[in-house]
Write a structure and sequence with these properties.
The protein has 18 helices and no strands. The chain has 398 residues and is mainly α. The protein folds into two domains: 136 residues, no CATH class; 212 residues, Tetracycline Repressor, domain 2. Helix 12 crosses helix 16. 30% of the residues are buried.
């Protein structure tokens, strides 16, 4: 807050203190005024769709924000932050000017909490507004004819749409929000888009092998776009933790596509290895995406249900290095007890070896070593390295 603001506050307090006979009520007056202002800030936030029309069109609760709305929301965040700080300073100044016996009772924390709530609500409104902007791209993704794609090319048009939306909004938000609030916004946005993209894959129809390869390329492109958001907003605070979070969330979509790419005879093992927390219902949906008929799915599902519990890694006791021996003390080596291999342990070892084999095969799918289609995919990536521009090159050379 500037000196002019502080002087204005003190002048206002002195002026009101002169008018009020009961000086201890001065705090109540300011609290009442500030709470009214809280309501004014809430009223300026864009609202979600309501009513019969919104319910009928599936837009009930959806928040639509224009570029102007996004700027206003940022101004509301900054105003609420200023008021939060000012309320604390008001409490200090009021305590100095009223009767000392009432000074300890001056407390503006309730009003400050309300301004904090305004900030949170405003930032979540920004997130929901961007989520709504992505609706068209998510629908477009499900309408791509993934079953009939003949070759892998550059990133799909819906990916370009996602990039365009973020390129329009993020620089403005980064310039108007403080690093703390911009980071909060980014974390919430990533927590929304990552899982949403993953679930959107399940909404697609039949996905062929080439279609899955193209979608895997698109997924990597979307991940790159999301990772570039801090740079786009010209804010680097918390970028490392944000990047780690985005990579973790988008890796789930990559794993799902690698399962879809796996051969039918190993799809169950690949699913358990790459998506150990997956459900039988999701696995059945994957079989649908692969284009398997219900009759062909039956045997696979029966085998999957027999081995439903995911393989868990055994607990390994960490090896603690002994302290270094000194000249006067010698540390005797601790004998290692002989370990007998029981049938159950042998089975577990075999299971883990099988899991490692599945993971290696799945990784090969991601690298493009399994199919002719992926050889084409690799050829495109190599060609992209020699290009000086274009979205495909940016994907592999960020």
């Amino acid at each position: 807050m500037g000196n002019r603001g502080r002087k204005s506050n003190k002048h206002s307090i002195k002026q009101h203190a002169g008018f009020l006979g009961d000086q201890e009520k001065l705090e109540e007056v300011f609290q009442k005024i500030l709470k009214i202002y809280v309501g004014k800030l809430y009223a300026r936030l864009p609202k979600g769709g309501t009513g019969i029309v919104a319910a009928a069109t599936g837009t009930d609760g959806q928040i639509r924000t224009s570029d102007r709305d996004e700027r206003i929301i940022c101004y509301i965040v900054n105003t609420a932050e200023y008021c939060h700080q000012t309320a604390g300073e008001l409490a200090e100044n009021v305590a100095k000017m009223i009767n000392p016996q009432f000074a300890d009772k001056v407390d503006m924390s309730e009003v400050q909490d309300e301004f904090s709530a305004v900030i949170t609500k405003a930032l979540m409104t920004l997130v929901h507004g961007l989520e709504t902007k992505f609706d068209g791209e998510m629908i477009a993704m499900t309408r791509v004819p993934w079953a009939t794609i003949e070759s892998v090319g550059d990133q799909s048009e819906y990916v370009n749409g996602i990039s365009s939306i973020l390129s329009s909004s993020i620089p403005v938000l980064g310039s108007l929000l403080s690093p703390t609030y911009f980071q909060y916004f980014l974390d919430k946005l990533a927590a929304s888009l990552g899982p949403r993209f993953y679930l959107n894959i399940y909404k697609c129809k039949h996905i062929s092998e080439t279609g899955a390869q193209q979608m895997l390329l698109d997924t990597q492109a979307v991940k790159t776009i999301l990772l570039d958001i801090p740079t786009l907003g010209k804010q680097s605070t918390g970028a490392a933790s944000y990047s780690k979070f985005v990579s973790r969330e988008m890796s789930k979509a990559e794993a799902l596509l690698k399962v879809i790419l796996s051969p039918v005879d190993s799809v169950a093992n690949t699913y358990r290895a790459l998506l150990p927390e997956g459900t039988p219902l999701e696995f059945q949906r994957i079989l649908d995406l692969k284009g398997l008929k219900k009759a062909d799915q039956q045997a696979i599902l029966e085998d999957f249900n027999k081995h439903a519990p995911a393989i868990k890694h055994p607990t390994v006791t960490p090896t603690v290095a002994p302290p270094a021996a000194t000249a006067s003390i010698q540390i005797a080596p601790i004998p290692t007890p002989a370990v007998s291999i029981t049938p159950s342990m042998a089975a577990l070892t075999g299971a883990l070896t099988n899991r490692e084999d599945v993971l290696a095969r799945a990784a090969a799918l991601g690298r493009g070593a399994a199919t002719t289609g992926f050889k084409r995919f690799l050829a495109l990536t190599e060609a992209a390295k020699d290009r000086k521009d274009g979205p495909f090159r940016k994907l592999f050379n960020p």
